Amino acid sequence: MAGKDDFIKGLASELTPYKPQQKPLVRFMYWFVFSMIAILAVMLFIQNFRAQFFSELASDSFYFLETLFAFLVVPSSGVLLFKLSVPGTELKKSHYFLALAPFILFVTFVALSAFGLVDQPSSMDGKRSTCMNEILILSWLPILLMTFHFSKNQMHFSAQRLGLIGVAGASIPAAFMQLACMRSAEHVLKFHIGPVFFVVVVFLVLAFMLKRVR
Amino acid sequence: MSLPNFKELMIQSQSGDQNTYEKLLQLIYPKVQAFLIKKAGPLALTDDVCQDCLIAIHKAKHTYDPQKEFEPWMYAIVRNKLIDHFRKNQRLSKKEVTTDKIDVTDRQLHSYSDVKEDNIRQTLHDCIAWLPSEMREAVEMIKINGHSTKEYAELKGTTEVAVRARISRAYKLLRTKLEKELGW
Description:
The complex is a heterodimer. By secondary structure, chain A is mainly α. Chain A has helices spanning about 1-15, 25-45, 55-60, 60-85, 95-115, 130-140, 140-150, 160-180, 185-214. Chain A is built from 9 helices and no strands. In chain A, α2 crosses α4 (about 60-85), α6 packs across α8 (about 160-180) and α6 runs parallel beside α9. The longest helix of chain A is centred in the C-terminal third of the chain and has 29 residues, at about 185-214. Chain A starts with a helix and ends with a helix. Chain B has 2 domains: about 5-90, Rna Polymerase Sigma Factor, Chain: A (Orthogonal Bundle), CATH 1.10.1740.10; about 105-180, Orthogonal Bundle (Arc Repressor Mutant, subunit A). Chain B contains 8 helices and no strands. At the A-B interface, α1 and α9 of A face α2, α3, α4 and α7 of B.
C-alpha cells in the first residue's frame, strides 16, 4: 500500500521534538488564574465591590459558607474538566457528583435563605444594575478558553462536558457577585444563579444540536 | 516475537525521532483499521477515516501522558474521529434525494439528469473559481490534476498536514456554496 506508506512517511517527516502537555492541575491553574483576574478586572472597572463584604464574611458564618461554596464550584468543576480533556480519561459518575457538590450546596444555601427557612439579612447596598448581564457576558471568556482547549485536544463535546463547562465558566462571575452585588438571597437566586442555569441550558441544547448535525 | 511497546515508541518520538515515530504509525495503522472495522463494519472510506484518525493522533500527540497506557489514549481519539465521520455522513445523507422519490418517466429522467448534470458541472466550476486563490489552486492541483498532497506540499514549500487542512477548508466552503447555489 504505497498510499498508506507515503502518508505515514509524510506525517512522520513533520515530527519535531515536543513536550507532553502539562498535568491537568497545572493547566487548570493557568485557566483559573487568568479567568479570575480578567473577570475581576472587568467587574471592578464597571463598579466597585460592596464595601462591607469583608466584615460580613468575617461575622456571618452562613454567608461565609455560602460564598465559599460559590467559589469552590470553579476549582471542583474546572479540575474535572481539565482531566476530561485528556483523551482516554474515564471518570466515574461519582466524580461528576463531587464536582457539582459545591454548586448544589451553594444553590441550597441561597434557596434556604430565599424561601425564609434561614433568617439572613438583606440589603440594597452595592446593588449593580447590570449584574445578570455581567454574568452572562463575562462567563464567555472562561468558556471559550475551555472549549478551545477541548478542541485542541481532539475531544468531543458530550452533554456532560458541555454542561460542566457552562457551570464552571458562569460560576466565576456568579461567585464574584456574592461580594460585588447587593446581599439578598432572592436576588442572588434570580439574577446570579439564574444566568448560570441559563448558560448550562444553552450548552445542553448545543450538545443536542452537535450530536445531530455536527 | 515480542509485542511492540507503543508506550516506549511514543516516549522516544517525543525527542523528534522520525524513524521511531514512523515505526509507531506503521504499527498502529492496522490496529486503527481493525478497530474501525470492528466498530462500524467495512466502511466505504475506511482508509480515509483511518488516515483522519492518524492525523488526529498526530495533532493530539502532546496530550499523551507517558505515565499512562498508550492504547486507551489512542482508541479514545479514534472513537472520536469515527463519531465525527458518522455525524458528517448523517448530515449528508439527510440532504440526499434518492431517485425513487422523484415521480418522472425514464425519458424525463434522462433529459432532466443531462440538464441537471451540466448545470451541476457548471456550478461546481464556478464555485471552484470563486474559492480564494490558495484553496482554488490546491483543489485544482490535487483533486483535478491528480497531484499527490506530498507533491503539492513540496511544490509550495509547506507540510502535507497543512495541505490537507487547506483542502478540507476548501471543501467546507465549496459545500456551503454549492448548497446555496443548487438549493440542496
